[in-house]
Amino acid sequence: MGLDKKYAKFAANKAIELLNIDSPTGFTKKAAAWVLDAFRGLGFKAELTNKGAVLVDLGGKESESGAVLFAAHADTLGAVIAEIKGNGRLRLSNIGGLQACNTEAENVNVYSRSGEVYEGTIQLINASSHVNKDLGTTVRDFNTVEVVLDEDVKSAADVRKLGLEVGDFVCPFPRAHITKSGYIKSRYLDDKLSVGILLGVAKYIKDNSIELQRRVYCLITVYEEVGHGGSTSIPSDVREAISVDMGCVGSGLQCTERQASICVKDSGGPYDYDVTDALVKAAQKEKADYALDVYPFYGSDVEASLRAGYDIRHGLIGPGVYASHGYERSHIDGVFNTMKVIKGYLGI
Ligand SMILES: [Zn+2]
Predict the structure, then answer these.
(1) Which of 27, 108, 130, 235 is deepest in the core (most CB within 10 A)?
(2) How many domains does the chain have?
(3) 38 CB contacts (<8 Å, ≥6 apart)?
(4) High-pLDDT (> 70) share of the chain, %
C-alpha cells in the first residue's frame, strides 16, 4: 500500500497547530492535552502519564519480537523570568538550549500564574543603535538581553501589579510558516514536526485499516529539552524504542532538510547496530531519500530511557532540520521521507 504525500501534508499541518501552542519544558499541559485529543480523534487509545507525557497505543498483535515504541517530544525551548528589574525589564533564565543570540528581537508571550498573557520583545539592553555605540559588538547572553514588556511599566512594582512574578514562563513566538515551495519554517520544529509525523503515520494506519504485525506505541514526552523526557513510561513489552526527533543539518554532515536523517552516533554514543541497520533497510525498501550521520552535540529521549535502566534497543531518525534551536527550517519532503522510513520499519 503506497503512502500518499497527503499524509505528509497532514503531518505538517498538525505540526503547525501544535507549534502555535506555547509549550516550553515545564509548561506543557495545553500542548499535551492537544496531543491527547489529536490521537484520540484518530481513534487510538491515549493516556496522560503522571509526568505529563502522552502514551498512545496504536494497536497491533502480540508478537515474539515484542513491541516497538516511537518517541517524540512536545516540549520546547523557552525561558522563565529570573528577575524583575527595577526599571520594569525582565532578566531571563533559559530553558534547554535556548541561545540569547538568536532570540534577540523576537516577540514573546509572558504567562502570569493567574492566567494573563502579556506580550513583549527580547532586546539587547539599551537596544537603540542611535544611542548605543557598542550594539554591534556586545556579546549576547542572558545578562545582556532582556524582555521589554509591551505594557506601561517603569518599575518592578508596575510589573508585579500585572500579576507577573519570578518563575513565570516566557515563550518566544514560533513564527510557524510553510512556503509555497514546501519549506517548513518555525522555532521548535524540534520536535513538534515529529509529533506531526507520528500523527500522520497514525492516520495512515487508521485510514487504511492496517493490521500491525506487532504492538506499536507512541510516547510524546514533555521533558526532552532538559534531558529526561524518555526516562519513564515505556510499557513493559517494548523491545525497541526509536526517537523520532530532528535530524542535524550543517557543516560536515550529509543530511538536508529534504531527507530523513538516520543517526548512527551522537553525544550519548552509538545507537543500537541492528536497529540502525533495520532503519537503513526500511529506508531503502521504501525508496526514502535518507542520510546517515553522526551528530556532534545531541542527546535523545531514548538515551534517557537507557540511562534510566530500560532494557531496550534504541534508534534515532527524523526530518533534517537546519538552524536547530534557532529559527529552524525543514521541508515537506523531509517529513515524507521520515514517514516512509517508519512505514518500512513496521513493514506496513
Ligand atoms: Zn528534540
Answers:
(1) 108
(2) 2
(3) 14, 18, 199
(4) 100
> Same domain, yes or no, for 214 and 315?
yes
Residue 233 has pLDDT above 70, yes or no: yes
Residues near ion ligand 1 (Cβ under 5 Å): 190-191, 245
Same domain, yes or no: 86 and 68: no
C-alpha cell at 328: 529552524
Assess whether 200 and 310 both reside in one domain: yes
Res 245 pLDDT > 70: yes
Q: Considering 104, 119, 146, 224, which one is annotated as catalytic?
A: 224
Q: How far apart are alpha carbons 205 and 212 in whole angstroms?
A: 8
Does the pLDDT of residue 2 top 90, yes or no?
A: no
18 within 8 A of 33, measured Cβ to Cβ: no
Grid coordinates representing 298 are 545531541
Average pLDDT over residues 274-296: 98
Residue 134 Cα to ligand 1 middle (Å): 35
3-state SS, residue 34: helix
Share of the chain above pLDDT 90, in %: 99
- Cα(301) to ligand 1 centroid in Å equals 8
Is beta strand 216-221 parallel, antiparallel or unpaired with respect to 54-57?
antiparallel
